[in-house]
Amino acid sequence: MASPPLTCSPEQLASLFGPNTTNALGAAEFICGHFSTVSDKFIDAGYAIDSTYLLFSAYLVFSMQLGFAMLCAGSVRAKNTMNIMLTNVLDAAAGGLFYYLFGFAFAFGGPSNGFIGKHFFGLKEIPSDSFDYSNFLYQWAFAIAAAGITSGSIAERTQFVAYLIYSSFLTGFVYPVVSHWFWSSDGWASASNTSNLLFGSGVIDFAGSGVVHMVGGIAGFYGALIEGPRVGRFDHAGRSVNLRGHSASLVVLGTFLLWFGWYGFNPGSFNKIFVAYSSGNYYGQWSAVGRTAVTTTLAGCTAALTTLFGKRLLSGHWNVTDVCNGLLGGFAAITSGCSVVDPWAAIICGFVAALVLIGCNKLAETLKYDDPLEAAQLHGGCGAWGIIFTALFATKRYVNEVYPDRPDGSYGLFMGGGGRLLAAHLIQILAIVAWVSVTMGSLFWFLRWMNLLRISEEDELAGMDLTRHGGFAYVYDDEASSKHGNIQLRRISNSGA
Q1: Averaged pLDDT score across all residues of the chain
Q2: What confidence score (pLDDT) does residue 9 get?
Q3: Backbone phi, then psi, for 129, in 5-degree steps?
Q4: CA angle, residues 47, 135, 55, in degrees to nearest 5
Q5: Mean pLDDT, to the nearest integer, of 268-279?
Q6: Residue whose C-alpha is closest to residue 183's, from 56, 368, 335
Q7: Cα 411 from Cα 421, distance rounded (Å)
């Protein structure tokens, strides 16, 4: 909402001119008219500044799709590069249509009930006094980020039609419902639902450790679990075999692009920057935006260094791919509390996030669970830690600034705020796990039952680029086509799409 307009009363102003002023009321009306014009211009400027800020944040978050594409491409084997790149493109394309038709309405279509929104289908009634087109664009970029997380978990063995189905369902329904719960002013657990706060606190998931990262990670977990490991991932004795991605360079490039985009993901979640906490002061929401960027940076950096030395102790190697995943795990964890914690607390967040990721990877290996990008462990595990971290370290002052309409008194347990916020956040974790398990778990089971989920072993060994996408992503010489042996491109039947 805009700041209240500056007011000028001609009658009050005229009384100040004195008895000898000719046509005092006319002069006062003239001055107040111009004063109102200037006031309106300030209001217009406020809307323009906030809208521009949100649009550029949306552009940054959208650039993360390129980061996901590069990270995924580098993390798979060369024979599946085109497949994983195409799925990233279609996450954005299919997600755009389905989020426009249904997703934004389910997420933010108020007034509604606590479970799901019911207005703004196809952006009807947009713009309004609550939402503009920039809000839709920003939230769409978040929705396709969740879908991008899931695609990494099921890479290298999933039928193309399965990608289209799950991506549309996730961005059009599953993710929007969760974002309604925790971000809409009508959501049953939202910190913005001040008339009915969960445990008198609500959930503080500022930029989505749970809403985005846990949703995408748990969806990916069920996809990878139901599909099973890639051929050759575990030998006949059950020992782990490392199927290395083909390009560490692309992994590093993708990581830096994601790092860059995270400065739109976390600081951009304020939605506006032109907000003064006290008039005429150097400290305002612009300072909170800067602090959020700092906490994001520190959590990622700490997680990267912790992973570097932790994996060195465990494996004896300095592994750049592990460091990149550790960095991203720190970012996923700090996303929930980035705006309401001090910078020193972000260092703790990143340190523990790295340990959580290493532990989840060890558990996955023990259970013979195969996730080529460690997406379920990274986004699901570190995202869950981030939710708990926020409930422990959220600072009273920052919580009151970021959520000014929320009753005072509930903040981080370790900061003296009691356990109500922690209780709400534990409920959030359970609710997300249950919802995504029921929806995405059922969808992946259905796709497997319909033989629409996994490709054949023959196609998997040959590589999906050759068997499904017209040829390899990389051509090393002009005669590459003659060196494919007896593997040939063939038309895909309806039963093996």
Answers
A1: 89
A2: 67
A3: -70, -10
A4: 65
A5: 90
A6: 335
A7: 6
Sequence-distant (6+) residues with CB within 8 A of 31 are 8, 10, 13
- SS3 for the chain, per residue? CCCCCCCCCHHHHHCCCCCCCCCHHHHHHHHHHHHHHHHHHHHHHHHHHHHHHHHHHHHHHHHHHHHHHHHHHHHCCHHHHHHHHHHHHHHHHHHHHHHHHHHHHHHHCCCCCCCCCCCCHHHCCCCCCCCCHHHHHHHHHHHHHHHHHHHHHCCCCECHHHHHHHHHHHHHHHHHHHHHHHHCCCCCCECCCCCCCHHHCCECCCCCHHHHHHHHHHHHHHHHHHHCCCCCCECCCCCECCCCCCCHHHHHHHHHHHHHHHHHHCHHHHCCCCCECCCCCCCEHHHHHHHHHHHHHHHHHHHHHHHHHHHHHHHCCCCHHHHHHHHHHHHHHHCCCCCCCCHHHHHHHHHHHHHHHHHHHHHHHHCCCCCCCCHHHHHHHHHHHHHHHHHHHCCHHHHHHHCCCCCCCCCCHHHCCCCHHHHHHHHHHHHHHHHHHHHHHHHHHHHHHCCCCECCHHHHHHCHHHHHCCCCCCCCCCCHHHHCCCCCCCCCCHHHC
- Amino acid identity, position 273: I
| pLDDT at residue 240, as a whole number | 87
Give yes or no for a cis peptide into 5 (omega within 30° of 0): no
Spatial CB neighbours of 36, under 8 Å, sequence gap ≥ 6: 5, 6, 8
pLDDT tops 70 at residue 227: yes
Token duo for residue 443: 């969808």
pLDDT digits (tens, 9 = 90+) for 124-183: 999 988 899 999 999 999 999 999 999 999 999 999 899 999 999 999 999 999 999 999
List the structure tokens of 127.
């713009």
Q: Around Cβ 428, how many Cβ atoms within 10 Å?
A: 29
Enter the tokens of residue 26. 């006319």
The predicted model scores a pTM of: 0.89
Helix axes 285-315, 343-366, angle to 10 degrees: 40
- What residues have CB less than 8 Å from 481, skipping those under 6 apart? 471
